[in-house]
Fold:
Amino acid sequence: MPNHSDRKADHLDLCASDQVAFKAKTTLLEQVQLVHDALPELAVSDIDLTTQLCGRTLQAPLVISAMTGGVDRADAINRDLAQVAQELGLGFGFGSMRPLLEDPKAAGYRVREVAPDILLFGNLGIVQARDASDQQIVDLIGISDCNALCVHLNPAMEVIQPGGDNDFRGGLDTLARLHEVLNVPVVVKETGCGLSRGVGQRVAALGIQTVDVSGAGGTSWVGVETLRARAATQRLGELYWDWGIPTGASVLQLQGLGLEIIATGGVRNGLDVARALALGATAGGIARGFLIAWNDGGQKAAHQAAAEVISEIRLACLLTGSRTPQDLVKAPKFLGPELVQWRP
Ligand SMILES: Cc1cc2nc3c(=O)[nH]c(=O)nc-3n(C[C@H](O)[C@H](O)[C@H](O)COP(=O)(O)O)c2cc1C
Structure:
């Protein structure tokens, strides 16, 4: 049975190329047409991208999303990406902290030296969270010094994963327990299949305030696990490769529930972030794009990629007459027919 670090190393290798992309499904963010404002009456310097998320201030509505931890390579990747977040005032997330449950010295979860001020997200799967004690989870937060804990819900990926989990009972109770016990916010997160309105309603009813939709259209985690799978789950994985709620549709589904929404899943640039914000998201997040940039040119390339996304968000604000990213939700827009179908 592959252990966590073999699996994480496979994930980093497989995600270095586009073979893990969705095959036909898109994020539907391309169906958000922001209306050009030829008289914006704003200077580029008037645009204020600061954004509140999880009770902290970001310099732009952007998160470098959860990817890694627990493998040797994770130390360098996480330190470099966290440093980019520090330099640009962004959020940054660790990959699953499951290895820390077994070994408090596991690689990759110490970034405060280079990123003292960032909004830092911890990460744990719902099944591991269900099975861990309160104290174990409190310790994970203490060791990593994170400001919020992303709890990822990923039933599709687990069932396809060789040796993955098959029992997802007790998830809502686990979220309620964590929300009660932890002194940092709980963020409910998918891993590429999106969150529906029904899930959003159940989560909001617990008092949880932040979700990360991690919708379909970007990295297919069923696809990643299918490429790793033995014959037993390979056929299922091929069938369900494109399963999930497109990222844009998921943001639309969660509108009006009072949740802070992070839009990840196939967000490629700042225009996609702006489109997600126009649908009601608070911030956008990118995972694989930053890994590819880091693979290409380390911290410098990742910094450049993130800086470009920020300028792209700023331009979308200017060209829609939005002084802040929060104003984008009021900007005139047209939604394409497939996206509109998902409106609650
Ligand atoms: C290499 C890699 C590893 C990931 N590991 C995790 C993880 O441990 N926990 C998690 O919640 N999401 C994980 N994700 C999912 C991302 O955080 C993100 O939600 C998803 O990939 C969609 O974003 P993208 O299309 O920009 O990659 C991982 C993504 C990548 C690319």
Observations:
- Residues 11-12, 15, 65-68, 95-96, 123, 150, 152, 189, 191-192, 214, 218-219, 264-267, 286-289, 291 surround flavin mononucleotide (CB under 6 Å).
- The first strand starts at residue 32 and ends at 34.
- Residues 288-319 form the longest helix (32 residues).
- The chain has a mean pLDDT of 95.
